[in-house]
Amino acid sequence: MSDSNFAERSEEQVSGAKVIAQALKTQDVEYVFGIVGIPVTEIAIAAQQLGIKYIGMRNEQAVDICAEELGNNVKPAVTLLGDINAVTKQLLEELDKTPWQYPPESKWWKTLREKMKSNEAASKELASKKSLPMNYYTVFYHVQEQLPRDCFVVSEGANTMDIGRTVLQNYLPRHRLDAGTFGTMGVGLGFAIAAAMVAKDRSPGQRVICVEGDSAFGFSGMEVETICRYNLPIILLVVNNNGIYQGFDTDTWKEMLKFQDAASVVPPMCLLPNSHYEQVMTAFGGKGYFVQTPEELQKSLRQSLADTAKPSLINIMIEPQATRKTQDFHWLTRSNM
């Protein structure tokens, strides 16, 4: 091959990163989220050159679709395995052909409505408690009072997510994101960032409320830097009970350490008491609040919603031994391992 022919072919060559970026552009992709490194860096640069927005993350997650997981909790009457978009489309097409809804006066609906009423009564009773530190229900009751109707609600944690699902309401479709059936930890802040990017571009003024347990926050807490780097409209609420499910207060912690070092005596579910997670937010330029009473919670949330210039993190201290109401079904808490 002559030198001139080689030069012509070299000029025509396109990098793999540009090919991927062009493919994404062709598919109308508007946002790309990734962990910086080879080859992500090259793809990100190529995508940005084509007008695609790139959001560099700090924490990487994986997703699997596995047929073996069908019926992992309760044996279903029917299982569907396939691409969610394709399956949903097929279901809607069939329902259009044969309209159907579950009879509203059936025994199942009657039982469900009765259970809803009893759950609501139990939650209200727990939310009305005035003792300090607060419990989960008291916290969520005061949060719910101020939530904007059009906000995205992101929830992650154990008790935090489960109780939050029953108390924190959302009124619009596709406005609730959480860790799902398996309670996968580390996804909450990523969900919040993705929702906030869409909200910032398409609905300026719309907020993302990301509710995290203190343990859940630890899985991807450094994404706070990502939130501040892009100045996203996110309010983080860390419901802090000093542990995973349960923890200890400061006095109990100090008493334990009188006997042996922490590695020998501290239960594995316990975290350092009264950790100031709000300082992670202030370290990167956002607003941070440490609250211990309903009044402090109400005030800090009001200020955070009013401040549209910066993201916020409210660190909410609750009773370390606070629990959820008793569960009726053993499969909600049992392990399949």
UniProtKB/TrEMBL annotation:
<feature type="domain" description="Thiamine pyrophosphate enzyme TPP-binding">
    <location>
        <begin position="160"/>
        <end position="316"/>
    </location>
</feature>
<keyword id="KW-0786">Thiamine pyrophosphate</keyword>
<feature type="domain" description="Thiamine pyrophosphate enzyme N-terminal TPP-binding">
    <location>
        <begin position="15"/>
        <end position="78"/>
    </location>
</feature>
<keyword id="KW-0456">Lyase</keyword>
<dbReference type="Pfam" id="PF02775">
    <property type="entry name" value="TPP_enzyme_C"/>
</dbReference>
<dbReference type="InterPro" id="IPR029061">
    <property type="entry name" value="THDP-binding"/>
</dbReference>
<dbReference type="InterPro" id="IPR045025">
    <property type="entry name" value="HACL1-like"/>
</dbReference>
<dbReference type="GO" id="GO:0001561">
    <property type="term" value="P:fatty acid alpha-oxidation"/>
</dbReference>
<dbReference type="InterPro" id="IPR011766">
    <property type="entry name" value="TPP_enzyme_TPP-bd"/>
</dbReference>
<dbReference type="Pfam" id="PF02776">
    <property type="entry name" value="TPP_enzyme_N"/>
</dbReference>
<dbReference type="GO" id="GO:0005777">
    <property type="term" value="C:peroxisome"/>
</dbReference>
<dbReference type="GO" id="GO:0106359">
    <property type="term" value="F:2-hydroxyacyl-CoA lyase activity"/>
</dbReference>
<dbReference type="GO" id="GO:0046872">
    <property type="term" value="F:metal ion binding"/>
</dbReference>
<dbReference type="InterPro" id="IPR012001">
    <property type="entry name" value="Thiamin_PyroP_enz_TPP-bd_dom"/>
</dbReference>
<dbReference type="InterPro" id="IPR029035">
    <property type="entry name" value="DHS-like_NAD/FAD-binding_dom"/>
</dbReference>
<keyword id="KW-0460">Magnesium</keyword>
<protein>
    <recommendedName>
        <fullName>2-hydroxyacyl-CoA lyase</fullName>
        <ecNumber>4.1.2.63</ecNumber>
    </recommendedName>
</protein>
<keyword id="KW-0479">Metal-binding</keyword>
<dbReference type="GO" id="GO:0030976">
    <property type="term" value="F:thiamine pyrophosphate binding"/>
</dbReference>
